[in-house]
Amino acid sequence: MRYVGSVYRPPSEAYSYILQVSIGCSHNKCTFCSMYKEKQFRKRNLDEIFEDLQMARSHYSQIKRIFLADGNALALKTEDLKAILEKIKELFPECERIGIYSAPKDIIRKSVEELKLLKSLGLGIAYLGIESGSDKILKYIKKGVTSDEIIEAGKKMIEAGIKLSATLISGIGSDENLEEHAIESARVINEIQPDYVGLLTLLIQQGTELYDQVQRGEFKLLSPQEVMRETKILIENLHIDEKCVFRSNHASNYVSLAGTLPEDKQNLINILDENLKRPYDVKEELFRRL
Ligand code: SF4
User: Fold this and answer.
1) Residues lining ligand 1, CB < 6 A?
2) Any transmembrane segments, and where (predicted)?
């Protein structure tokens, strides 16, 4: 398989064949993100993409899941995505789900009809990095979108019937915005009602603007106890109507949480309360990673 630079995928796409349909991230300005710093954003040529698919077909007898990378593959024109999804259908009739990274502005640029078309061609799940629901924090981390735009994008995906997996980052507002981050993030999730919510814990990567801010003492990282307190406030404020799978069991997290909301809400809060009572020995810092 041919890949340009480092390739990233959500944890739940661990067993997927990753197809780079674009290179890098068209925004590439978030202060905490180092993923695509070495890449200049570009869309890949359709012929190249089709060649990769042919190569994958000749290597693998069965591919059940395909993930479209890089950072915001949904930035491609709908007609190009349509051609890619049709080619996948033709070459991999056994494929059960196609996933994609999506940014709010890419979703907003497409109509619900376009998204429904992509869904009908096999696009089953979109991953949306919300990071925080607080406009103050979104501005500070240079996310390039407002909470209203995130809500509009998320709702559009749900309306189109594409499963939505939203990600938040614990500690992204520092200690002074702990409550605001938790409450505002819950507000955005409540508005969107995504199918999945994933909670990562902030890890500082060298080479990012946030790393420099931490070094200069301008941004304070949360202690494990503060992260747990923030997570508790977030969960307390989540009001999910139907089923939403909540996961905070990424390697970056201090406490592993997994459940389905709304029914597991109290159980998740109880786990956090238990951990908040003891001194931090839940996970050695050394073992936290992306
Ligand atoms: S967090 Fe997402 S939108 Fe921001 S720079 Fe990284 S890949 Fe791009």
Assistant:
1) 25, 27-30, 33, 35-36, 71, 103, 129
2) none
CA gyration radius, the chain:
19
pLDDT at 169 over 90: yes
160 vs 153: CA distance, rounded Å: 11
Q: Measuring CA to CA, which residue among 79, 103, 193, 179 is closest to residue 134?
A: 179
| Tens of pLDDT, residues 259-273 | 999 999 999 999 999
Best of 6, 25, 142, 203 to mutate for ligand 1, by most ligand atoms within 8 A of CB? 25
Q: What percent of the chain has pLDDT over 70?
A: 96
CA of 195 to the centre of ligand 1 (A): 21
User: Domains (ranges, CATH) in the chain?
Assistant: 11-287 (3.80.30.20)
Q: What is the 3-state secondary structure (H, E, C) of 189-255?
A: HHHHCCCEEEEEECCCCCCCHHHHHHHCCCCCCCCHHHHHHHHHHHHHHCCCCCCEEEEECCCCCCC
Q: Give nearest CA residue, ligand 1 atom 6.
A: 33
